[in-house]
Fold this sequence. Notes:
The structure holds three protein chains of three kinds.
Chain A: H1 11-25, H2 27-31, H3 39-61, E1 64-66, E2 72-74, H4 85-109, H5 116-130, E3 136-139, E4 142-145
Antiparallel strand pairs in A: 1-2, 3-4
Helix pairs in contact in A: 3-4, 4-5
Chain B: E1 3-7, E2 16-26, E3 29-39, E4 44-54, E5 57-66, E6 68-72, E7 75-85, E8 88-99, E9 105-111, E10 116-121, E11 127-134, H1 136-143, H2 148-156, E12 160-170, E13 177-191, E14 197-213, E15 216-232, E16 235-238, E17 242-249, E18 253-263, E19 266-276, E20 281-293, H3 294-306, E21 314-327, E22 330-346, E23 365-379, E24 384-390, E25 393-395, E26 398-400, E27 403-410, E28 413-423, E29 426-438, E30 441-454, H4 455-462, E31 469-481, E32 484-495, E33 498-508, E34 516-527, H5 528-534, E35 543-554, E36 557-567, E37 575-577, H6 578-587, H7 598-603, E38 606-619, E39 622-626, E40 642-647, E41 655-657, E42 661-663, H8 664-677
Antiparallel strand pairs in B: 1-2, 2-3, 3-4, 4-5, 5-7, 6-7, 7-8, 8-9, 9-10, 10-11, 11-12, 12-13, 13-14, 14-15, 15-16, 15-17, 17-18, 18-19, 19-20, 20-21, 21-22, 22-23, 23-24, 23-25, 24-27, 25-26, 27-28, 28-29, 29-30, 30-31, 31-32, 32-33, 33-34, 34-35, 35-36, 36-38, 37-38, 38-39, 38-40, 39-42, ...
Helix pairs in contact in B: 1-2
Chain C: H1 3-22, H2 29-43
Amino acid sequence: MKSASMPSGSWAGRLAALFVGLALAFPVHAQGNLEIDTPAISALRKTMQQRHAQLAPLYASGAVGIAADGTVSLRDAAAVPLAQRAQANAAVAAENADRAALYREIARANGHPEWEAEVRRTFAQRWLERAQPGWWVQQGAAWSRK
Amino acid sequence: MLATAVPLAGATVFRVLALQIAEITRPGLAAEELSVRFDAHAQSGEIAVGRLRVGAREWRALSLRCGRLHLDDGVLGCSAARLELRGRRLPFEADIEATLGPGPARIVLRLAEGGRIEAAIQADGSLRARLHRIRPAATAALLEPWLAELAARLRELEAVGVLDAELDYRPAGVGDASATLRGRIAGGGFGSGDGLRAAEGVEAGFTLDARGTGAAWSWAAQLDWDAGAAYVHPLLFEAGPRLRAHGRFDGRRIVLERGELALDGVAAASARGVFDTFGGTLDTLAVELTDVDLVRIGPRWLAPLLAPASAQRLRLEGRADLRAELRRDRLETVDVELHGAGFGLASPQGEGIAAGGVAEEARAEVLAFGPVDGRVRWSSRGRGEAALQVGGGRWEKLALGAFALDAVLGPAGLRLPGARIPLLDGALVLRDLALGWSVAGWEGSAGAVLEPVSMPLLTEALGLPRMAGVMSAALPGLHLRPGELVLDGTLAVSVFGGWVQASGLRVHEPFGVASHLTGEIEARHIDLAQLTEAFSFGSITGHIDADVRGLELSSWRPTAFDARIASIAGDERRRISQRAVQNLGALGGGGALAAVQRSVLRLFETFGYRELGLRCRLAKGVCEMDGLDAAPDGAARADGGFTIVRGGGVPALDVIGYNRRVDWNELVARLQRVVAEGVSPTID
Amino acid sequence: MNPVARWLFAAALVASTAACVTINIYFPAAAAEKAADRIIDEVWQLREGAGSAPATPPAAGDAK
């Protein structure tokens, strides 16, 4: 990067210097974006998107609900044909493993592994809010249909 | 027995007959305060029982109202009868014919939904009953007053199906009492509210023989499950198993002395146990499975329990003997003997996600062990142990040799004093491995040492160009926590006359799609002559140092790093061959050569150089290139290029790059072309 | 500074310290929500173009 020469002493220069100082003090916040495009996060997003084809009908039937802790939960296995219950359970387990990895990875990719719990909380809330009408969501401990 | 008949009107033709009986007792049965009221005109009547005792149970205020009541030759006939218990009508209609005093009785109960029970009771107390098309709802209604908890359980489980059965009962006489129940369930099923325990379309035949006296009974049962399926979270069971069992019953506990199950994929399965009928709990259950075929049983019953999230990726083979004990519905001990067992974990990429999709056979396995022989004993309450002989294994492309594992197991973890896993001509030695299991996942720590592995063998195994040297590692601080494996220590490779050292290694999300590795690499005093020869890159002499900071590998492909390569000041003769120059030029993008005339280049085989340097910062698929830090005069090149090789001696040559942002995949592809094919790039 | 302004200032100071105790100000909550929404759009395929799976019309003769 080339260093730009600045007319020192001028008001404009002082203001610019002040501005640069601020930008350095809040480099992440000023940007306003979290890094979610690392290869690991991308791989998780892709896998989860593929798995959604299997989970979407389970959300719709109420077999699987959007849990309050950022996971999905097999809340009514009776809504799944008997022979497919084990597969539905495996899909839920795999989805939750990926989600746990996703929250960890986002925290890690942004240089703050300790943010994991907060990333999880934020996602939990967004998953709940963005759930489609008819899906089951968990608030507190209680399940309700959106 | 005391009976008084009181004709209320008329001596020969009475209209209403009332009969009071103080007590009737039969083996296992007693009725007190009986009264019979017969209305001759209406041909109807009522039998009331103040207190009825059957076995240990007792009911009060029973009354039987007969739609038609007749008494012929001492035979009491009561048809279209309704039974009331404390004023509540029971859900059936009965026809009863009974001999007053000692003698046979016939009872027909018509239940809801077409169910029907026909029973014939002989004077000696023996009973023969036929149950026709009995359904759970009718059964629950029938059982309600007598066995309220069982009825509630039947309703709760939403049981369906039709039962046809025959019951033969002989009371104790000279010998023991005996009972035989033989029957068939069709279209049977149930489901707990949450669907975690359920069955559907069950067709099964059963026989139960019991004999005994009072509260002590012995029994033998047989169950053939012909059709249907059951789900007991998270396992699916399908029709086929045949059960033979015998045991005892003391009025409270059902003791299973031995049950044998014929099961597909298991040579022999047997069980012992105690079931508490009052509490509805399994007090104890011991199961023994002999010669289990892991290929067939593994995906169905082991993978969903051991690794539900990666069940589809887990491969099991070989055979095992398994013993497990449950106490009060909780697993207490497990004892497994493995015979030539094999385990494999497929790469998560290309996971067979589609519902019902079968995982592709050819998927590469990341990790595999086998054959494994030995024994694992685990207890929920104390110390267990594992003693395994592992015949070999494979991690990615590396074959692992045979090793022994002797670990101490705890209820939720294991400790391994040490293990030596051969790797090519060296070995990975683990010490003080401690692993613990919690809801979040596995956690643990260990120390590891990699005993020297020769590089020629390693590079050959990995399919890399042959390199001389050895690799070794001292990783005293190995830590596994959910989502991360930390390898504190260093991995050192002596190669190309110098050494390469990796430190700060971390594997993130080791078992999932997001798996990636980070670390730092330092290389010192690498002999370029050996390096360029190994990679057929042409020829460069001299030595370099290299530093790779913030290296990140996903699926062994670099996704981020900040790497610098710089020649070391020294007095050796530094030469670079014509071909190496061309290759370097090709890496920098077409036409990256300056300060050298093509004609001049062609005139000489090698050129002298003073120094060499290259920097590549990789992020988001783009390598930001830079060359030697700065020119001797301290100024950046006016044309925006960066110097990779600065010439010196005769003839001298500079290699200058102009393309500072290079697509990483493109760069790798070029490098591979140059290395693999040795094709001279075109120079314009 | 007049008493009212002083009081307000003190109240604001107390409020902001209390906020510091209960809310981790270092966590970029808004950015995290934005990131979550982007990922949710993609995983649940809620927005046109967010998903990579294009809605392919059943092509005659081409399919199968």
